[in-house]
From TrEMBL:
<feature type="domain" description="SET">
    <location>
        <begin position="92"/>
        <end position="209"/>
    </location>
</feature>
<keyword id="KW-0694">RNA-binding</keyword>
<keyword id="KW-0156">Chromatin regulator</keyword>
<dbReference type="GO" id="GO:0032259">
    <property type="term" value="P:methylation"/>
</dbReference>
<keyword id="KW-0489">Methyltransferase</keyword>
<dbReference type="InterPro" id="IPR001214">
    <property type="entry name" value="SET_dom"/>
</dbReference>
<dbReference type="GO" id="GO:0042800">
    <property type="term" value="F:histone H3K4 methyltransferase activity"/>
</dbReference>
<dbReference type="InterPro" id="IPR024657">
    <property type="entry name" value="COMPASS_Set1_N-SET"/>
</dbReference>
<dbReference type="GO" id="GO:0048188">
    <property type="term" value="C:Set1C/COMPASS complex"/>
</dbReference>
<keyword id="KW-0949">S-adenosyl-L-methionine</keyword>
<dbReference type="InterPro" id="IPR046341">
    <property type="entry name" value="SET_dom_sf"/>
</dbReference>
<dbReference type="InterPro" id="IPR037841">
    <property type="entry name" value="SET_SETD1A/B"/>
</dbReference>
<keyword id="KW-0805">Transcription regulation</keyword>
<dbReference type="Pfam" id="PF00856">
    <property type="entry name" value="SET"/>
</dbReference>
<protein>
    <submittedName>
        <fullName>SET1B methyltransferase</fullName>
    </submittedName>
</protein>
<feature type="domain" description="Post-SET">
    <location>
        <begin position="215"/>
        <end position="231"/>
    </location>
</feature>
<keyword id="KW-0804">Transcription</keyword>
Length: 231
């Protein structure tokens, strides 16, 4: 029991040499302060200088590059997409209630500046054949009002049963808004823009621009230059 344990020798690289050949079998041994400081200095220097590929990957984008991309993006899309994203995250405060023009109407609950997106006309995208079938079915069901909006020659948005507040917007011969078709992610959408400043509690209207037909639909907008009919 009085045998003295041999001192553990150090290798040329500074690491302690294991007599038994296994670090686990020799248990815990104290590290000199000099060796500990040397290890801490090396690890600190390594932490302050990350690898080159990490520096490139985590490098923040340059501000001039951001401005260039933003200017080219807004110039090419006429800022419609940016406005549409803003409309999604910050919707205009609107309400629907009884209108003096016809049945229900949509009214502004906050001031809306000119040339702003007011609301998107939401509904089901259907073809002309389906639109004709649904129009006849809606007449049989007693749904007198039409909530179909033509996007192009082949596509129609039906907001009769799957729509939002935009379907309550009434027609006016002197409207304060207008409808515009924009393309978002290769999909056409109808958005209602403001033509002029809209005050609080003012009804939102736009021109339906119905095609001219023999059977006339009377217009009840009551504006000074009222055409008398919607079509």
């Amino acid at each position: 029991t009085s045998f003295s344990t041999p001192k553990k020798k150090k290798r040329d690289d500074g690491m302690r040499e294991h007599v038994t050949g296994c670090a686990r079998s020799e248990g815990y041994y104290k590290i000199d302060k000099k060796d500990k400081l040397k290890y801490l200095n090396n690890s600190r220097a390594f932490a302050e200088e990350p690898p080159a590929d990490t520096q490139v990957r985590n490098r923040p984008p340059q501000v001039p590059e951001q401005r260039r991309l933003l200017s080219s993006f807004t110039g090419s899309c006429d800022s419609d997409l940016l406005k549409f994203n803003q409309l999604k995250f910050r919707k205009k405060k609107l309400k629907f209630c009884k209108s003096h023009i016809h049945d229900w109407g949509l009214f502004a609950m906050e001031p809306i500046a000119a040339d702003e997106m007011v609301i998107e006309y939401v509904g089901q995208n259907i073809r002309q054949v389906i639109a004709d079938m649904r129009e006849k079915r809606y007449e049989d069901e007693g749904i007198g009002s039409s909530y179909m909006f033509r996007v192009d020659h082949d596509t129609i948005i039906d907001a009769t049963k799957c729509g939002n507040f935009a379907r309550f917007i009434n027609h006016s011969c002197n409207p304060n808004c207008y409808a515009k078709v924009i393309t978002v992610e290769s999909q056409k959408k109808i958005v209602i823009y403001s033509k002029q400043h809209i005050n609080v509690n003012e009804e939102i209207t736009y021109d339906y621009k119905f095609p001219i037909e023999d059977v006339k639909i009377p217009c009840l907008c009551g504006s000074e230059n009222c055409r008398g009919t919607l079509n």
